[in-house]
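Sample entry (175 residues):
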Amino acid sequence: ATPCCAVIAIDRATGVATARSRTGETFRFEVKDAALLRSLRVGQSVAADFGTGKVTVNGAQPCCAIIRPAEPVGRPGVKPAEPVNTKQVKPAEPVGKPNADPAEPCCGITAIDLATGIVTAREAATGRVFRFEVKDAALLRSLKIGQKVYADFGTSKVRIHGLEPCCGIIGHGRN
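Predicted structure, serialized as tokens:
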């Protein structure tokens, strides 16, 4: 299989990687083999066969199922999608809108208040400043100034790691 795409994000908790083709289209694929998941790196080339819905890593046999972008992952009962034709994959919406491309963080952390759990971030595209509350103490302690996060202003939710929102946006405006 000839590599066509590059890995742009890896969620090791759910075993889902996101890749981008040379045409700019993104897709996700599920890596069930733990050793392969550990060896996968952002920027690594992979081959995708959208006809069979399979991804090949390191030129070996196809290993991983392509997941349609709109389908949730990491939840019980979610099955891999049927084969996807790249011409049918809907391009990601602009950052900061509902259903924005999960592979592209939109915002950077500018302040962290460990006492209250309130984190301030700025949306790179617009300069919009917003705050969100992190209730998980371990997650709060793991955050760093400048760290990239994903914000969905439509649902007022923030994702820090992975595909599931962790935190609610509590205020936003312009700076």
